[in-house]
Amino acid sequence: MFHVNRCFHSDRTNDPIIYLVQSLVVVFQGCKVYVKLATDAFTIAVRQEAKGLAIVIQNSLVFPLLPAILAVGQSNCSINLGSVLTAGAGGNSRPWISPAGDFAFGFQPLLHSPSTNQDHFLLAIWYNQIPEPTIVWSLNDHPVQEGSRIQITDEGQLILYNSQGQQVWMAETGNERIACGAMLDSGNFVLINGASIYIWESFRLPADTILPGQRLSKDGKLFSRRSDTDYADGKFQLRVQLDEDLVLYPVFLPTESVAKAYWVSGTNRPNADSELVFDEAGLIYIEDRSRNIFNVTERDLGSRQDFYYMARIDYDGALRHYNHPRGNSTADARRHSPAWSVVQTTPEDMCSAFLGELGSGACGYNSYCVNSNGRPNCLCPEGYSHVDPLDTSQGCKPNFQLPSCQQSGWESKAAFVEFTELNNTNWPFNDYELQTGPQRLPLSNGIQSASVSGIALIKVPRNNETTLCPKSKDQSTLVLVISVLLGSSVFFNFLLLISISMAIFFLYHKKMLNLRPASTLYGIRRYTYKELEEATGSFEQQLGRGSFGTVCKGVNPSNTMRYIAIKRLDMAVKEGENEFMTEVNAIG
């Protein structure tokens, strides 16, 4: 077994080897060649394998010359450990180019981001020899700023760092160490270990595009872009299902759950082992154990010598097959169309692909779709405008106050309502009444086509003057008045609560001040009036009289052998209390 960079084949049975070498046809790169010796006529058969193409050579006379044939190719390991690419201008910004120069791996600038006021870059693979580089693979969920870098580290890992030096992404190699990397002429960027085995391939991590030589196995997916210039995952998906069907789905973001398919290959086969194949001749088909069971491509993409190929699920949900004249092509197409041309679209009409299904469809809610040269043109009814003028597939929004579903709403008064008419237009399952056809919101999967019979009626406010409805104005005034009253009531209640709290505080504080001298000063025991009355015999025996009260003789309640003098204040006023305290101080 030989591991080679480039393999060739010829089906001529009697050519000298020099003619064989001169008439070589490039088949692929990075493949493994299996040699089988036999005595029958010289043949070279090419068949597809998991890692590329396998060539079976059946002639012992050819075997000695095989090393000379294999030596034509150059080594795969063109990108060594420590290699670095930097986003933006600089010495390390030049991309890694495939041997023939058709593809490049590196950073592509994205549109300026108004939200961050910074330029962003996308790690990507693109067609390199055409006027406008066309991205065929990218890390679309990891845009980075200028100064970010991708590096094959000395430890054998491919890592993307942002401009602050933080790791953003790393290629999953199953803990195997990278020996080198290579950008192949097939458009496949590969990482190779010390045994010359591919341990990571961009072909196995596709974005929205598939190239000749690439396969999608079971549960393989392509995601559409979010828009023509936004490479993040969009709302459509191509998938090779586990039941072998090739299916196009609308996707709900960010959960990535899918709605009902809008195109199905119908190749459901129990216990099959199917793959989607894009072969070197430009044909796309579903293969089950090396047998073609369904052709996706129905039209000729042109000669591989004259054209580049690719197939992409575009942001509008259609799978399109493209070709582009090569830089050295002499074909007439190059002179007339020096750009990517659509050869086939699946499904052919995206506008009608969603008929009968609820959901946002190709153009989003409240819009209608017109097929324009094979692409959906998304338009808004009168009184509506696009949610995002830069991405019309996001749908439309009403430019008026929505119906309130109340008897007082503008929609219930004929003076404020008019119906706009759209000929040959329909929103399936949005009709209020099947005979008259007024529509209810939100409008979904709208289509306008000559094949659609009937007129769609959409209720909108007359001249967009929903504020002319008196009831609505009165209600607005009522809401304002109630809001003011409620606000005033809350304010006054708050002031009242503060006033009451302060009054209670001062009264309590004053009471405590009044009680403090009698209860806490001098450590004197406090007697009740009844105790004093009993001790003096109801104040019967008077000893004398002062300016504020009478002094009476009494007996100490706790010791009847001791007599005491008790002064009875005539008026419980502050002066009397002070006089009493003065006398106590004098007594000591």
Automatic annotation (TrEMBL):
InterPro entries recorded: Bulb-type_lectin_dom, Bulb-type_lectin_dom_sf, G-type_lectin_kinases/EP1-like, Kinase-like_dom_sf, Protein_kinase_ATP_BS
Ligand binding (ATP): K574
Bilayer-spanning residue ranges: 478-508
Source organism, top-level taxon: Eukaryota
Gene Ontology terms for molecular function: ATP binding; kinase activity
Gene3D superfamilies registered for this protein in UniProt: Bulb-type lectin domain, Phosphorylase Kinase, domain 1
Record Pfam families: B_lectin
The entry's keywords: ATP-binding, Glycoprotein, Kinase, Membrane, Nucleotide-binding, Signal, Transferase, Transmembrane, Transmembrane helix
Kinase listed as a keyword: yes
SMART domains from the UniProt entry: B_lectin
Leader peptide range in chain numbering: none
The Bulb-type lectin domain, residue ranges: 82-204
Name of the protein in its database record: G-type lectin S-receptor-like serine/threonine-protein kinase LECRK2
Record lineage: Eukaryota, Viridiplantae, Streptophyta, Embryophyta, Tracheophyta
